[in-house]
TrEMBL record:
Matches recorded under Pfam families: DUF6231
Name of the protein in question: DUF6231 family protein
Annotated InterPro entries: DUF6231
Organism of origin: Spiribacter insolitus
Highest taxon, organism lineage: Bacteria
């Protein structure tokens, strides 16, 4: 029994709806995405415009980057994703390109701290989604609590 893979636009609408009342920012050059989501209060940016205006990007609850978009270079794509992750969005989703050698591939996204979130299907093939959410980035270890922070049981054994 296999699960049906959702379509990319359907999964994108679900992700934007989950952002709630906050602003959603979508970086893409796909006209189909713009027309499908145009009435939902989503802010769209072309990749070259987003790359040229790093400092003027708005704060958003959700940022979605289309990995298949025409970025000026692979370096520009990685810098934009890192900038959105660090400064401009609470949650970032990257829709990786269907091509194995796309600009925003698995290696780059895992290196930036992203985790695999979902898969979707579109006319170009299967797309993999990666997520970075600062609220879920690091699980707090068991030993990191007020009871263990100073190691009081070692005070009489060692001199630091």
């Amino acid at each position: 029994m296999s699960k049906e893979i959702p379509k990319t636009l359907e999964l994108l609408e679900t992700a934007i709806d989950s952002a709630g009342e906050g602003t959603s920012l979508v970086v893409t050059d796909a006209a189909a995405v713009r027309s499908a989501l145009g009435g939902q209060g989503v802010m769209f940016l072309d990749p070259d415009v987003a790359e040229a205006s790093f400092d003027k990007l708005p704060r958003a609850a959700l940022a979605v980057i289309d990995g298949a978009a025409a970025f000026p270079s692979a370096t520009a794509a990685v810098q934009l994703v890192g900038r959105l992750r660090d400064l401009h969005a609470d949650r970032v989703l990257v829709i990786a390109s269907a091509e194995a050698d796309g600009q925003l591939g698995r290696q780059e996204l895992i290196g930036l701290g992203f985790q695999r979130w979902a898969s979707s299907q579109d006319r170009d093939g299967r797309r993999r989604w990666y997520e970075f959410d600062i609220a879920h980035y690091k699980v707090t270890p068991d030993w990191l609590n007020a009871r263990h922070w100073a190691n009081p049981e070692l005070w009489d054994k060692y001199r630091w």
